């Protein structure tokens, strides 16, 4: 140990540097629009945490639920060594299935809601299994297979709500409203729908599955040491498919929550444009794939996005500053949280190096 | 039906779609061969497309735009190098971040510089003009295919054999391959693999930047948010499938480019836009599936 090499200089200083650089980048970007930095900061705080009766905070929480859900979905895959970056396609499949079932199937609202959520989870799982099938039986690396599968479903959904199932009278490219009785209710006295409860359940399930069940243990083992898992005779192919199905089902559930909790219909681009899936991925990467930290990083990124929207309203700073901030944070932190994705069996199949 | 699809104007449109994918994929090939797992081509391409419009608008020249596009692409390459090579960040994580960075930064700057959102379409953007090759232009089929294209297309065509020779003969090309295949040997030979990889990222940024310029100031004269629209990912697939060898890469880029122009063509014939938009990705998936399956069978 060199003199002066203390815990402070090793652990704290690099993090201070991270915050310093993030602040510098944001300051420069805000100065570009020659806006008052103080007003921008106030707008940010207001947009992320304020509003009348905390309306904006509720928006942040609602977005947290979606981002955290997508993060949990990819967390399961990543920890099992499956580089599934097709969360967006699975999310769209789920949202589309949920909206179509609720619009087309008549019946008592609660039953329809349950049916629609199940359909969404099934659709998400099927879409995830497609990429698993391509990897296991054809040899297409899941990294590119899952990514490419994002595009067809995006356009299929777009077509369905633009032509056969379009709410023509609305003039927008969107489906009809789902029956009002199936809308997720708000928490009493707030404007926050109960969708977040589904995510809490999904989070408890994910953590319990990953850490208390044999299946979850084996899946993680397969992620950490694929050769070992294969050598000791674990059914690695079956584990991969089951993990992907769970991943996709959670993504599909998130799509259903967005439909029943927020938009009450499927609007073209509503799940793609806000980059929920990609934000979920970086929320997992930010905390080095530690499950119980994921909701916090989900909240963190949700606040950045709603805060940026607030900054745009009050200080005229384009809200895309959120994307830049998120990217800079990941770049700076990715190099500190090392080994996040090492020993991914998929990586070797992808032809890249570590 | 067929003569409706295939005529001179269709042949002439193919190079416009081949060029951006080919240039991006050639850039990706440099990284692939040098052992840099760069899947941020989408972000590089988008940065190039935006920078091209900025450069063209402020210099009043398409070449100024191309130069700016190179600068934009190289800047992304340097960001990649800083965080992956120097700070040791995971290549996939850095790639994802750069793709998000490019999407955010281009949209942000679009609003800051031009005060518009969504798309910037202005008479001040000077695009590349088609170059007519006397003699060749009169030939059937080949004529419209090869003549009347932009400088960027001819540059992309010339880069294919040039890169082949570069990897086979040039000192830096050989070093890049060594950095990819056996960095320890390169190190033992007194050459820093990381420095060689840095050059591969610089080259990749420049080529992707020019690919972006083809999108924004050659095919059209405007910038639209996210106008790379997944073409960088298609280039990534092309690189992975060919393991970065220039000639097979060229073949795959042509296939994807033909499908891309075909999809544009059938849209004009009344097929819903969603299906035609889907075609390049489906084609990529099909090619990827077929080649992977064939390879696996050969190995068994």
Architecture overview:
- The complex is a heterodimer of chains A (354) and B (300).
- Chain A has 354 residues and is mainly α.
- Chain A has one domain (39-338): Orthogonal Bundle (ABC transporter involved in vitamin B12 uptake, BtuC), CATH 1.10.3470.
- Chain A contains 15 helices and no strands.
- In chain A, α4 (87-104) runs parallel beside α7 (150-162).
- The longest helix of chain A has 30 residues, at 109-138.
- Chain A is globular and about 60 Å long.
- Chain A starts with 6 loop residues before the first helix and ends in a 5-residue tail after the last helix.
- Mean pLDDT of chain A is 87; it is low at 342-354.
- With 300 residues, chain B is mainly α.
- Chain B has one domain (2-124, 148-299): ABC transporter involved in vitamin B12 uptake, BtuC (Orthogonal Bundle), CATH 1.10.3470.
- Chain B has 13 helices and 2 strands, in the order αααααβαααααβααα.
- Chain B has helices spanning 2-5, 8-34, 41-59, 62-86, 91-114, 142-146, 151-168, 171-181, 183-188, 193-219, 231-242, 246-268, 273-299, and strands spanning 119-121, 222-224.
- Chain B has a two-stranded antiparallel sheet with strand order 1-2.
- Chain B is globular, with a radius of gyration of 19 Å.
- The mean pLDDT of chain B is 90.
- At the A-B interface, α6, α7, α12 and α14 of A face α5, α11 and α13 of B.
What would the keywords be for this entry?
heterodimer, A: 354 residues, mainly alpha, ABC transporter involved in vitamin B12 uptake, BtuC, globular, disordered C terminus, B: 300 residues, two-stranded antiparallel sheet, 2% strand
What does this entry show, briefly?
The complex is a heterodimer of chains A (354) and B (300). Chain A has 354 residues and is mainly alpha-helical.
Oligomer: heterodimer
Please tell me the overall pLDDT of chain A.
87
Segments of chain B where pLDDT lies below 50 for 5+ residues? none
CATH topology of chain B: ABC transporter involved in vitamin B12 uptake, BtuC
- Which strand order spans the largest sheet of chain B, edge to edge or round the barrel? 1-2
Summarize the amount of helix of chain A as a percent range.
Answer: 55-70%
Distance between the termini of chain B: 42 Å
Helix content of chain B: over 70%
State the end-to-end CA separation of chain A.
Answer: 28 Å
Q: Which residue ranges of chain A are poorly predicted, with pLDDT under 50 across at least 5 consecutive positions?
A: 342-354
Residue share in β-strands of chain A: under 5%
CATH architecture of chain B: Orthogonal Bundle
Total count of helical runs of at least 4 residues of chain B? 13
CATH topology annotation of chain A: ABC transporter involved in vitamin B12 uptake, BtuC
The overall number of domains of chain A is 1
Q: What structural class do you assign from the helix and strand content of chain A?
A: mainly alpha
Give me the count of strands of chain B: 2
- Major sheet of chain B, described briefly? 2 strands, antiparallel
């Amino acid at each position: 140990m060199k003199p002066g090499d203390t815990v402070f200089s090793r652990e704290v200083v690099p993090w201070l540097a991270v915050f310093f650089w993030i602040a510098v980048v944001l300051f420069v970007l805000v100065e570009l629009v020659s806006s008052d930095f103080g007003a921008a900061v106030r707008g940010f705080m207001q947009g992320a945490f304020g509003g009348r009766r905390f309306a904006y905070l509720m928006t942040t929480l609602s977005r947290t639920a979606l981002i955290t859900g997508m993060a949990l979905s990819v967390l399961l895959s990543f920890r099992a060594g499956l580089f599934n970056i097709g969360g967006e396609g699975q999310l769209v499949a789920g949202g589309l299935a949920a909206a179509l079932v609720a619009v087309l199937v008549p019946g008592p609202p609660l039953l329809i809601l349950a049916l629609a959520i199940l359909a969404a989870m099934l659709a998400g799982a099927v879409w995830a299994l497609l990429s698993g099938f391509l990897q296991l039986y054809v040899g297409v690396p899941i990294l590119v297979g899952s990514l490419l599968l994002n595009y067809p479903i995006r356009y299929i959904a777009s077509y369905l709500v633009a032509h056969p199932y379009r709410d023509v009278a609305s003039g927008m490219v969107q489906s009809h409203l789902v029956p009002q009785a199936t809308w997720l209710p708000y928490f009493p006295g707030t404007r926050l729908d109960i969708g977040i409860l589904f995510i809490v359940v999904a989070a408890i399930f994910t953590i319990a599955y990953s850490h208390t069940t044999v299946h979850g243990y084996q899946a993680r083992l397969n992620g950490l040491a694929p050769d070992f898992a294969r050598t000791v005779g674990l059914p690695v192919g079956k584990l991969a498919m089951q993990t992907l199905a769970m991943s996709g089902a959670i993504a599909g559930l998130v799509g259903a929550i967005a439909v029943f909790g927020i938009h009450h219909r499927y609007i073209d681009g509503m799940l793609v444009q806000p980059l929920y899936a990609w934000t979920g991925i970086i929320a997992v990467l930010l905390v080095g794939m530690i499950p119980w930290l994921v909701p916090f990083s989900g909240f963190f990124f949700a606040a950045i996005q709603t805060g940026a929207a607030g900054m745009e309203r009050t200080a005229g700073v384009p809200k895309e500053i959120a994307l830049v901030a998120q990217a800079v944070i990941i770049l700076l932190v990715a190099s500190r949280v090392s080994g996040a994705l090492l020993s991914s069996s998929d990586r070797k199949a992808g032809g890249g190096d570590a | 039906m067929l003569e409706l699809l295939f005529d001179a104007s269709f042949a002439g449109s193919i190079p416009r779609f081949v060029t951006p994918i080919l240039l991006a994929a050639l850039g990706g090939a440099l990284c692939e061969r040098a052992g840099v797992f760069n899947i941020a081509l989408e972000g590089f391409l988008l940065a190039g497309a935006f920078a091209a419009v900025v450069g063209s608008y402020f210099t009043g020249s398409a070449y100024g735009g191309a130069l700016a596009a190179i600068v934009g692409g190289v800047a992304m390459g340097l960001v990649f190098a800083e965080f992956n090579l120097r700070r040791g960040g995971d290549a996939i994580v850095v790639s994802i971040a750069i793709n998000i960075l490019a999407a955010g930064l281009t949209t942000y700057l679009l609003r800051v510089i031009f005060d518009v959102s969504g798309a910037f379409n202005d008479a001040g953007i000077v695009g590349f003009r088609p170059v007519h090759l006397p003699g060749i232009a009169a030939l059937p089929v080949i004529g419209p295919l090869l003549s009347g294209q932009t400088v960027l297309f001819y540059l992309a065509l010339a880069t294919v054999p040039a890169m082949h020779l570069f990897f086979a003969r040039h000192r830096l090309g050989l070093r890049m391959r060594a950095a990819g295949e056996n960095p320890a040997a390169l190190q033992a030979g007194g050459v820093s693999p990381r420095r060689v990889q840095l050059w591969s990222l610089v080259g990749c940024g420049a080529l992707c930047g020019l690919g972006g310029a083809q999108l924004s100031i050659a095919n059209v004269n405007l910038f639209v948010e996210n106008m790379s629209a997944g073409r960088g990912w298609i280039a990534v697939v092309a690189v992975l499938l060919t393991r970065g060898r220039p000639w097979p890469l060229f073949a795959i880029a042509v296939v994807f480019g033909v499908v891309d122009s075909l999809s544009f063509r059938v849209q004009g014939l009344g097929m819903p836009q969603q299906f035609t938009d889907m075609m390049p990705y489906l084609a990529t998936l099909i090619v990827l599936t077929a080649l992977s399956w064939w390879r696996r069978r050969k190995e068994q």
